[in-house]
Amino acid sequence: MKKITYRQWDGSQQPFSLNKKEIADRFFENLFKGMSPGMSLAQMMWEGFSLAGRDFRIMGLEEMIAELQKQKDDMLSQYNLEEAFDQPYNELEFAVENENFTRAVKRAPQIPTFGELEPGLLEKMNALKPISFLDEESQEIYSRWEKREKDIQDLYAFYSNYAHFFTGETALDFEQAVALMRQAGEIEKLQQQLLSGELFRIDMESLQKLLGDNAGESLNILIQLPGVLTDEGMIEKDQGRIEITPRGMRSLGELAFGSVYRQIKRDKQGGQLGNAPQTGEIEPDTSRPYQYGDRFDPDISRTILKAVSQGRHRGRRLDLSPDDFYIREREPLITSTIVVLLDLSWSMSVDGRFEAAKKVTLALHHYIKTRFPKDKIHVVGFSTEARELKEKDLSQVVWDIQRPFTNLQGGLRMAMKLIKRSGNRNNRVLVITDGQPTAYYLGNELHAELPDEMFGISENACRETLVEVKKVTAQGMNIETFLLDRNPVLVEFGKEVARINRGRAVLCVPNDLGKLMFLEEIKKRRRS
Question: Is-contact 404 459, C-beta < 8 A?
Fold first, then answer.
């Protein structure tokens, strides 16, 4: 059996080998859920996580603390301390009686009986200190317990504070009680250190003894987490706060895009690009038979495979015909501006709505920025009010607890400003929301309005928002609305927005949001 010995961490030990990308991905997954960078790191350390290639789960601080508490609770329910002081009391009583017997034989003056000494074991021991014992056995017994005076004092203090909590049937003698006291002290110290975050001060040997090898290795991994993310360039500390770095933002976008893209099966129908020469980005792992007029970007592997499969090879010679050629497809470049309106109202925090919405927004932002750098994409978060979310803001955004209303009108106004500033003519507004408007402006004055009843309507908020929809439509901007709730008022409102704008309203569950948005985005760019 493999044995691992731990000692207290002093910074000089070689760290465990970690899959740093997997660590970073788990950190970013928490950001999708609405956690701040500091909260994400704290959650990983508190709850623990699994890592590929390891045959055990990384224990979190919560699990360690809970396991220590269980051990403490087991002590309380299994043992009692009723006989903890019987051994020293009985032996010292015997020593006094034996001393008086020896003194009687030697006709020496008697010492007080054990019962005549001051009450209390420690008090009786203090009273015996000035006595010169004539009996060797009595002297040996007293000396032995005098050396244990600190243990007796500690056990008395422990007994005074905790004896009434020990309700088990097994009575402990003095040695067992002292050992239990020391173990309980180790448990309490470890719990306090784990709760306070003083992980570098934890005695690994003590942790391993109480919780096993897995806990020791898990704690070493947890200690490394901030350093791993910092060394990988994902986070940095700014005035004591953990912040995402530019590299971290790019990695977050890549993870979001990869997660969404894996959900999508490429649409095989309706994707004819025609015979015109193509410009743009080569799509990964996609090619089709060559047609006259196509830009010549041959897929060499498929071309050769096609010729070989047709038997047109003679020794080392391969005869190719035009029908053998496959070309790589490219996505067309279009100059456009997209504004994503991301609902940040409190209701987005339920049923995985915010996680899905933030992930697809990050994915789309990454997709446009990296694949179509001439295009522009903006993100506007809206709750009671609307605000533009720059890349760093988007990476760390959470729903607004303090501003719980839904001001889509404000979001549309900001979208128009951003689109006009861009100067592009091919413009779209993508709305992700789970509720009807409940906040709006009259002039520059902000109003909030909740429905009078469930499935009721915020009449003024809806009316003013639809007025804004008409203004957006008049500017030639297309609106696509993705509805994350089946509330009939929201559904009807979405339909009305689509009718006015001649756009579309899509009712979907959070898990399908990424697929629905990206499929349409890819189709639009292929048709352009």
Answer: no
